[in-house]
Structure formats: C-alpha cells, structure tokens
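sorry for the late reply, my laptop died twice this morning and i had to redo everyting from scratch. anyway the thing you sent over, i finally got around to it. pasting the sequence first so we're on the same page, its 403 residues, then the predicted structure underneath. double check i copied it right bc i was rushing
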Amino acid sequence: MEFFFPSLVGVGLVAGFASWVRGVRVAAALSVVTGVQVGIASLMHPVIPGFELLFLALEGLTLLSIASLLVPGLRPTWWRVLVDWPASAFLAGTMLSLPWAALTVLPWDVPAPWLPYALGVMGLIPSLYTRREAVTLTLGAAPAGPEVAKHRAEASRGPVDGDAPADAVRIVQITDPHLGTFMSVERLAAICQRAVDADPDLILLTGDYLTVPTNHDARALADALAPLRAHPHVYACPGNHDHEAPATVQRALAAVGARLLVDASVVVQTRAGPVEVVGVEHRWRDGARHLQQVLGKPRARPDGVSVPRVVMLHDPFRFEDVPEGSADLVLSGHTHGGQVGLLSLGVDWTVVSGLLGRPDHGLWARGRDRLYVHRGTGHYGFPVRLGVPAEESVLHVRFAGAR
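ok and here's the structure:
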C-alpha cells in the first residue's frame, strides 16, 4: 500500500492550515518537523509487513493531532484518547526508529523493526499517571565536591503516607503540569487536592503550566489549580513556556491565591521555623549575572537570625550559576526527569544525566548548595514519557542550619 505520497499530501495540508491560522514561519517550522517524521516513517513502512493500513491510519492521526495544536482550547476526552494518544505513541515510535530507518539502506534485513513502536506504546503508560512518594532530604549530612554532581547520600524515598521527621519542613512541589494532551483539568485538580491534603508547610509551583492549545485559557488553568485556594502558602515562579502566555499564567495564579514570585522573596513560618522562599525569573541568557543580582542579596534575618533559603529556579542547568553559599535548596523542574530513561526499571539512568551528565532528576550538590530536580507533574515536547514516570512527591526537608 502506498504510504509516502498520501502522507506528503497530509504534510502539505498541515502546512497550509498552519500558514492560514498562524503565519508562514509556523508553517515552515511544522513542515520541517512533519516532513522529517514522514520521511522516517516512509522508510520504516516497508519493513513492518502486515501493518500497512494501520501505519497509514496512524500517520493520518499524527498529522491531524499536530494540526489541532494550532487551534486554541483543551480537547475533549474522546479526542485525546482516540487521536492524541495513539498519535503520540506513533510519533514517539517513529522518532525512536531513526537508527532502524538508517539500516533500511543496507542490503540486509532490519532487526526487530517493530521495537521502537512497541516502546512508543509503552511510553503512554508513564505519561498517564504520577508516582506518589515521600522524599526525605537531610541537607548537609554528607560533604559534596566543588562540581555539580548527583548526591544520593542525603536523599531517601519512601511511601507518601510514612512518618515525617518532626524537624523537617514539608514541601509539595508541582512543576511542568503542561495542561493539555496528557494533563486534563480534572487530573491536575486531583493532584492539587492531594497536595493540599498532604498538609505541607509550602506548596511551590516551579513553572511551565500550559501548552500551545491552553496558552489563552486562564479559566482552564484556574479550574485545574482551584484546590490550592485552601492552602495559605502557595508560591510560584515562571518557567520558559510561561513566557508564551504570561498574562494567562498570572491571571490563573491570582485566581487561586498563588503568589507569583519573580526575582522576589517571602519569609514563611513553617513547623520547623522560618524559611525564606525566593522565586527566580527564567532567562535564557546572562544567567550568572542575573542569579548574582537576585541571590547575592543578604538572606532574610527575622529576629536577627539568618534563615534557610529555598529557591524556585525552573531550569536546573542554571544551578551551576547560583552564587556559592546563596541557596540551601534549589527546586527545579524543566527536564521532565530526563523523559527517556530506565527509572521505571529501578535503574538510575536517563538520556540527560546518563549521556550528558546534566541534572535532570533527584538530588544534586555543589559544595554547600543543594538542588532537587522534580521529574515533572506532566510533560511537553517529546510525545511520551519512556521509563521516567511523572512525580507527585512530598519533600521532607531537614536543614543543617542557616549559614
């Protein structure tokens, strides 16, 4: 069955629709993305016999799903289940099959050509749930070197209903919910309700709340975050995607009583004493100077005593630019835990930290400073999570003492 030419026509239709509703630049970008995807799928199509019709149908759903991103608004459940989810699995499988596609030009059989598509389907599972757990961080209990590195010695994980240390600050972090394909209003609202029910001292939101279809829907985000109104100490910082719709994010956060901290701080009384919470703006450039300006200021000193400082910094890669000694604990997201890895199998490896050595999940350290990278409440970008479940944790943070 012919695959390439019908798919190429589909790419043209998507590009034409994009040009009509979003302009030539968006159309050109989508043409490149969909063209590469169709090219890889066209090479894989002949080497997976017996699935020609299914292959073509899934390609059609993929192009339809991509085109639908250009139309603002949350999709109904039936659309997400019947269109977006199978399209995401097929798109992920096609992207993963690039090495197999390269082998099709060689004069021998391609081994297990179905494997990347099986992985794409498997990636739907961790995309649809969050792993609930309690994480105890005993900061300052073990020395750390001068370079940013994984620091497992001060972190332990357990059941979310386990006993918390009496001297710990209890924090629930929600990051990268990305309201959209895999994160419905109802799902995020349930996560927020569980956050409130955990009775934390702080609920901290560390950015990237929306996706392209929801960028102009403050009502949907406010409805999803609505349970947070019941908690007195909810603070937020911006993420990189929030620059696409800053007014939408600001209205939604204000509607639920969440205070947006942009290069600003607040001191909160917790069960373990006062804690300073700092929210940092996301910037792609001039990061070191920006962080020096924000975090180089003297710590808060109620009653003349310096207190622990918790910094909300969306991008964990910027941890290396945090001035030394200026943050007891930095909380980040952004990486979605690495998104592709082996964590679901109990192996602490992802493509981000394993291949690139960059912080993407768990506790990291540099000298006296600590960074905790949340695996993300949702995700956006790569179509599915693969071996890296989303996180829904309660942090029990034990500070060694303010410096």
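Residues 131-398 form a domain with the Purple Acid Phosphatase; chain A, domain 2 fold (CATH 3.60.21).
thats about all i looked at so far, will dig more tmrw
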